[in-house]
Amino acid sequence: MEDMIFYDRMQFAFTITFHYIFPQLTMGLSLMIVYFKWKFLRTKLVQYNDAAKFWMKIFALNFAMGVVTGIPMEFQFGTNWAKFSELTGGIIGQTLAMEGMFSFFLESSFLGLFLFGEKLLGQRLHFLTGLLVFLGSWASGFLIIATHSWMQHPVGYEILENGKYVLKNFGALFSNPWLIPSFLHNQMGSVITSSFVVAGVGAFYLLNNKHSQFGKLFVKTGVVFGLVSSILVAFPTGDWTAKNVAKYQPAAFAGMEGIFETEKGGAEIVLIGQPDMENKKLDNKIAVPNVLSFLTYQNWTQEVKGLNEFDESLHPTNVPGLYYAYHIMVGLGTIFIGLMVIATIQLFRKKLYKTKWILWTLLFMIPFPYIANTTGWYTAELGRQPWLVYDLLRTVDGVSPTVSSGNTLFTLLGFIGLYFMLGLLFLLLAGKIINKGPETEKTV
Amino acid sequence: MEIFWYIVLMVMLTVYIILDGYDFGAGIVHLFFAKKDKDKKVITKSIGPFWDANEVWLIAAGGILFFAFPTLYAVAFSGFYLPLIMILWLLIFRAIGLELRGQIKNTIWEAIWDKAFGISSLLLALFFGVALGNVVRGVNLGMVSEGVAANEGHYFFLPLWNSTFSPQAEHLGVIDWFTLLLGVISVIILLIHGANWIIFKTNSSINEKLKKVVFRLNFVLLALVITSLSIWDRIEALPFHNFMDHPWLFIFPSIAIIGLLGLFKIKSFKKDGTGFIFSSLFLFGGLTTTVASIFPKVLPSTNDVVSSLTIYNSSTGEYGLSVGVYWFIIAIILVAIYMFVQYRVFSGKMDDNSYGEH
Ligand code: HDD
Ligand code: HEM
Ligand code: HEM
C-alpha cells in the first residue's frame, strides 16, 4: 500500500508546494498595494499611485499563476484522494465550496475591474476595488486554512454507519481552536514574503542607481512591513501555533523539536543537531536547557513528552524531515527579525539607502521567505502523518482505489514538466517587469 | 434538500458553460478566422476582464459538487482520471496563452501564445462535449465483469478509448463515436456562441464574416442535433421517459429549439447582442434537456449489479445540506451583485473604450 500511494503523495506535495508560491505573494502584496493606493488618496503624491500600478503588474502575473495552479488543487482531492473525498467531502467540501462562492468570485470579478478599470472608475472606486481584491484573497486564505485545520484537528463531525463523516455542527468548523492561530500565523508569513519582495526590488534599484526614488520608497515600505510581520509571525502567532501542536498532536511536537526521550525536570530547546533514527538520538546537539518547557508551558520544569512515550504507529512517518522543516522555518524567522531590526535602525538614522551590505542582503533574501513558508507547511503536513485526518483517517486509506500508480506517475511527470515551464516563464516575465521599472505619470 | 443542491449544481454548470463557453468560442474563432493582428487583439480584449471570473463558476461548481455529493465527486473524478487531468492542463495552457501574449512584443512569442490559446480552447470545447457524452452514456460502475464487481462501492476507472470506439462495447472508453459526436456538437455550438459574443462586444472587421459563418454552421448544428437524437435510444433504453411522465419538462427542449431556430435570422438582427441571447438559450435548453433526461441519475451504471449513482445515494448528510443553504443564498446574491457591477462597468463595445492595458 505504501508504495501505491507514493506518487499520489508526491503529486500532491509537488502541486501544492508550487501553488503556494503564488498565493503567499498575492495575499501579502494585495495588502501593500492597497496601502500604496491609500497613501496616494491621502497625500495626492503621484509616486504612490505609480508604485501601486507597478506592483499591480507583478500582482496580475502572479495572480494568473495562482489561478492556473490552484484549479488542479481543487480537482485533485477527487482524482487522487477519492476515498478521502467520499468520506469527508460533506465536511471539508463545505469550507472549500464556501471559498469558491465567497472569495474566488469576489477576487476575480474585482480584479478585472482593478486591473482594467482605473480610468472608468475614478480614483476612489479604484481604491475600493483594490480593497475588495485584498479582502477576497484573505478570505480565501481563511477558508482554506479552515479546511486544513479540520484535517489537523477534526471537530463538529459525526461518523455514520457506512463509515462516512458528516457535519454535525457548522459553527464548530470556525470555532476550531486550530484555526485562528494558524490563519494569523500563515497571513503574517505571506506579509513577510511580500515585504521582502518589495524591499528586495527597492534594493535592486538603489544598487543599480536606477529609479532611485522608487527604490527608496520600496525599501522603506518593505522594511517597515517586514519588521512588523517578522515579529508577529514569531510572537504571538508562531508561539500560539506551537502550543496547539503540543496540546493536540504531542507526537508531532516531539518530532518537530527532536525529542526522542522524555526529559525529567524540564525540556531543553534544540538549536542544532541531526536526528539519528537508528539510535534514536540527536547528533552534534547544541541545546539550551529548560527553555522549551518554558516556551511551551510557561513553566521551566514542566516535562515535554518525547517520542518514546508514543506507540511506533503514531510516530510521524518522517521524523528527520519534520525536524529539519521546523528548524529551518524557525531559524529563518529569527534571521528575518534580526535583519529587519538592523534595517529599521539604519532607516531611522537615515543611513539605510547608503548601507550597501544591507541592500545586498535584502536583495538576496528574496527567496528565503518562500522557503520559510514552504518549510512551515512541510512541518504541518509531515507532522500530521501518518494521518490524513488526525486520529481519524490514515493517509493510506484515503487514496483513490482505482487509479493505478502508473497513471499517477504519468500525470505527476506531466505536472512537473508543465510547472517547470510555468516557473521559467514567471521568472522571465517578472524579471522583465522589474528590470523595466515603474513608470512615472505626470497626471492621473 | 438533494433536489435543491442538484438544481443549484446544474444551474451553476450551465452558467459556467454559457459564460466560459463564449470565451472558449472566442478562442476557436481566434484560431480559425482572425487573420489580422488587430482582430486578434480585439478578440482577446473582449474577454480580457471576464474570463477569470467565468472560470470561477467551474471552481465553485466543483466545490458544491464536492460538498453536496461527495460520492459522485470521488467516484467520477477518480474514474475519469486521465481526461480530467488533461482538461486541467488545457485550462492552464489557455489561461497562460491569454495572459502572457501581451507581455512581450515579438511576433514569434505572440504566435506561440495565440496558438496555445486557440488550440486549447478548441480541445476544451471538444472535451466538455465528450464529458457530457460520458455522463449520458454511463459507465461500468464497480467494474463488473461476469456479474461480479471488481471494486468496492461504485469505483471504476475508464481508459481514454478502447479499440472499437463503440459506446455499446463491454469495455468502454472515454472517447467513442457517441461521445465524440457530442464533442463535435459542443465545438460547433461554442464556436457559434463565441462568434456571437465577438459580434456583440466588438467592432472588429470580421463581424460581417462571422455572421455568415454562424448562419452556415447553424445548419450543421441542426443536422448533428437531429442525428444524435435519432440514435439516442441506442445509448439509453427509454430515452425520453422523464419527459413523458412530466410533460412540463418539455419547456427545456422548447427553449433549445427557439435558440437554434432564432440563430437562422442572424443576418437581420437589429441589435448586435441578439445572436448571443439565442445561442445562450440553445446552450441552456440543450444542457437542461440532457440532464433532465437521466434525472435523478447523475452517473448511470451500464451493468445491473451496481446501481447507478443518483442524487440520493451520492449526497452527504441532511444537516450539512441544510446548513449550506444559508450561506449559499447569501453568497449567490453577492455573486449576482459582482456580476452586475462587472458587466455594467464594461458595458458596450470593448474596443470603443481605452480600458488600459496591464
Ligand atoms: C515566513 C514564513 C514563516 C516564518 C518566519 C515562521 N513560520 Fe511558522 N509557519 C509558516 C510560516 C512561517 C506557515 C507556512 O505559514 C505555516 C504552515 C501552516 C500554517 O498555518 O502556517 C507555519 C506553521 C507553523 C507551525 C505549525 C505546524 C503544524 O501545524 O503542525 C508552528 C508550530 C510554527 N509555524 C511555529 C513557528 C515559530 C515558533 C516561528 C518563529 C520564528 C515560525 N513558525 C516562523
Ligand atoms: C491549506 C490547504 C491544504 C490542504 C487542504 C492540504 C491537504 C493535503 C492532502 C490531502 C495531502 C495528501 C495526503 C497526505 O500525504 O497527507 C497533503 C499532503 C502534503 N501537503 Fe498539504 N494541504 C494544504 C496545504 C499545503 C501547503 C500550502 C503545502 C506546502 C507548501 C503543503 C504540503 C504538503 C506536503 C509536502 C504533503 C505531503 C506529505 C506527505 O505525504 O508526507 N500542503 N496535504
Ligand atoms: C495555504 C494554503 C493555500 C492558500 C493560503 C491559498 C490561497 C489562495 C489564494 C489567495 C488564491 C488567489 C489567487 C492567487 O493566489 O494567485 C488561490 C487560488 C486558488 N487556490 Fe489556493 N490556497 C491554498 C491552497 C490551496 C488548496 C489546497 C487548494 C485546493 C482546494 C486551492 C485551490 C485554489 C484554486 C482553485 C484557486 C484559483 C482561484 C481563482 O480562480 O481565483 N488552494 N489560493
From TrEMBL, chain A:
It is found in: Cell membrane. The chain crosses the membrane at residues 12-34, 54-71, 91-116, 128-151, 188-208, 217-235, 323-345, 357-380, 409-430. It is a multi-pass membrane protein. GO terms for molecular function: electron transfer activity; heme binding; metal ion binding; oxidoreductase activity, acting on diphenols and related substances as donors, oxygen as acceptor. Its main location: membrane. GO terms for biological process: aerobic electron transport chain. It holds the Pfam family Cyt_bd_oxida_I. One of its GO terms (cellular component) is cytochrome complex. Keywords: Cell membrane, Electron transport, Heme, Iron, Membrane, Metal-binding, Transmembrane, Transmembrane helix, Transport. Belongs to the cytochrome ubiquinol oxidase subunit 1 family. PANTHER family: CYTOCHROME BD MENAQUINOL OXIDASE SUBUNIT I-RELATED, CYTOCHROME D UBIQUINOL OXIDASE. This is Cytochrome ubiquinol oxidase subunit I. It comes from Brumimicrobium salinarum.
From TrEMBL, chain B:
Its main location: membrane. The chain crosses the membrane at residues 6-34, 55-74, 80-96, 116-136, 174-192, 213-232, 247-264, 276-299, 319-341. One of its GO terms (molecular function) is electron transfer activity. The keyword Cytoplasm does not apply. GO terms for biological process: aerobic electron transport chain. GO terms for cellular component: cytochrome complex; plasma membrane. It is a multi-pass membrane protein. Keywords: Cell membrane, Electron transport, Heme, Iron, Membrane, Metal-binding, Transmembrane, Transmembrane helix, Transport. It is found in: Cell membrane. InterPro entries: Cyt-d_oxidase_su2 (IPR003317). Pfam families: Cyt_bd_oxida_II. The keyword Heme applies. PANTHER family: CYTOCHROME BD-I UBIQUINOL OXIDASE SUBUNIT 2, CYTOCHROME BD2 SUBUNIT II. Belongs to the cytochrome ubiquinol oxidase subunit 2 family. NCBIfam families: cydB. This is Cytochrome d ubiquinol oxidase subunit II. The lineage of its organism: Bacteria, Pseudomonadati, Bacteroidota, Flavobacteriia, Flavobacteriales. The gene is cydB.
